[in-house]
Design a protein that fits this description.
Elements (H helix, E strand, L loop, with lengths): L1 H17 L9 E10 L4 E12 L4 E15 L5 E21 L2 E18 L3 E3 L8 E5 L1 E5 L2 E13 L4 E15 L1 E6 L2 E4 L18 E16 L7
């Protein structure tokens, strides 16, 4: 195992020394992409980010997710929705290129604050799976932070000297730890299930810590500081 790790480190070091640089000028960049915010109502957000070149082959991207368009077709019975996410991603840029695009692999971590209040009543369960047995309630406050960890693969396509497109996808795990407080009129019971079709319950319906599959994909615009057009 030690020999394998040493060989991998040696490969990364030698390839970094030989290969063309990913950031020909400047160490910093700014990114922007859209995001769907995981709230009961359909909510859209913006995701600005800051890119920093650690070395010729390693970079760090940190993004913030901020809701901007809320309560589209709101029929969820929830109010006081709050959400904010920070998302760092560590990347290794491979020395080979595909059609002038740079290919990279990364580790993305994120932590999101998610809070809301259900004022029309609902159902939650302390057991999994299926939400079979739990509590009906008239009103409750919900605190449901989210942590994710995923392996990312991406391709950076240079559009101009200063702007590039970053296409990405990733898979990993989503950790949700939900707590219900100030619950009004909790009544123990069994949740009614439809006779036909699959049933999907939101992650905050579990009054406990749960782990789900996490998948993401999309693209972002990246502006590179310090690059200059050749005349």
């Amino acid at each position: 195992m030690r020999k394998l790790i040493c060989n991998l480190l040696l490969f990364f070091i030698t390839s970094s020394a030989r290969a063309q640089r990913i950031f020909p000028e400047g160490n910093w960049g700014a990114s922007l992409t859209g995001a769907m915010v995981p709230l009961p109502t359909f909510t859209l957000g913006i995701q600005p980010g800051l890119l920093y070149k650690v070395s010729d082959r390693v970079s760090l991207l940190t993004e913030l997710t901020i809701p901007v368009i809320k309560n589209i077709g709101d029929n969820s019975g929830t109010t006081n929705q709050r959400y904010f996410r920070i998302q760092p991603e560590f990347r290794y840029h491979f020395p080979f290129r595909k059609r002038k695009n740079n290919i990279y692999m990364g580790l993305r971590l994120s932590y999101a604050i998610r809070k809301l209040e259900d004022v029309d009543g609902g159902f939650y369960s302390d057991v999994t799976p299926g939400l079979v047995e739990g509590f009906y309630f008239d009103k409750a406050k919900i605190n449901s932070p989210i942590m994710t960890s995923s392996l990312q693969v991406g391709s950076i396509a240079n559009g101009t000297k200063t702007i590039s497109l970053d296409f990405f996808w990733g898979v990993g795990a989503r950790f949700i730890n939900t707590k219900y407080t100030d619950v009004v009129n909790p009544v123990n019971g069994f949740r009614n299930r439809p006779a036909d079709g699959p049933v999907f319950y939101p992650s905050y319906s579990y009054n406990k810590a749960v782990t789900w599959l996490h998948i993401n994909a999309g693209f972002r615009l990246v502006y590179h500081f310090g690059r200059r057009n050749n005349h």
